[in-house]
Amino acid sequence: MDSYDDRGVTAGRAAGFVPGATEAPEAVPEVPDAAESAGPPDAVGAPEDPPGPGIPSGGIAALSLPYQAVAALALAVVGVIACVHLGMIFLHVAPSNTLTKQNGEAIDDWVYPEFEQNWKLFAPNPLQQNISVQVRAQVRTADGQWKTSDWIDLSAQDGEAIRGNLLPSHTVQNALRRAWDFYTASHDNANKPNGMRGALAERYVRRTVMLRLADQDLGGKVERIQVRSETMWVKAPAWSDEKTNGRPAHRVLPWWPVIEGDLPEGARRASEASR
């Protein structure tokens, strides 16, 4: 049996240690045992443990109780508004029934003008014309003389206001067009009313035009206005054999005197007095 000293000498020789040497022996790396090397997997590639019971994983459940209440209330409000909107649109496009007759005004107030519904997108023969509404005015200057302005293209002004605007006003898009459509539907080609709504259509056009002229300096007070439409046919594509007329067609209305009710302030006072 070896003594303690013999074992020390043997270990020193195995490590390359020579007695009396000045340099320390180099460390020999230890080789782990197979049992030690089979440790737990790397933490980087290992999946995270699922949260324990009672611990929120994310979403609304991760918020504090007051914020959860606010989020739930906001979702409820959005849901109610969405349901009301869908119901109003359904009643608007549905055939006439008891609900639409009793609540027609409320439905129209909700739908118009932002959510108007029509079937023109699916028309079998879409419009192939560009119709612009123009106006000229007779003004009385400061020295009492009369002056007639040039034709002002109101539709072109609307087009400039819409072009490049990501969120154009629905009024700018449709007010003038709807006024002209209302007039042409209630008058014949001789500009005579064909029903009970002719006078209303004329007042609608005059007020719409004067609202647009209120911001323009025409050199005096506007006394009379004349409105016309200019219709231009859309050119056929190059591959089509269809022939189109390139000359504009005009429909000129008679001169209308401007009354106080046609002016923006006068129309507002008249509306307030009728209430």
Which H/E pattern describes the elements?
Answer: HHHHHEEEHHHEEEH
Q: What is the CA-CA span between the terminal residues?
A: 124 Å
What general form does the structure show?
extended
Structural class: alpha+beta
Which sheet architecture does the biggest sheet show? 6 strands, antiparallel
**Tally of separate helices:** 9
Number of strands: 6
Task: Walk me through what this model shows.
This protein has 275 residues and is an alpha+beta fold. It has helices at residues 4-14, 34-37, 65-93, 98-102, 104-111, 154-162, 170-186, 198-213, 264-273, and strands at 129-140, 146-148, 152-153, 221-233, 249-252, 256-257.
Features:
single chain; 275 residues; six-stranded antiparallel sheet; 9 helices; 40% helix
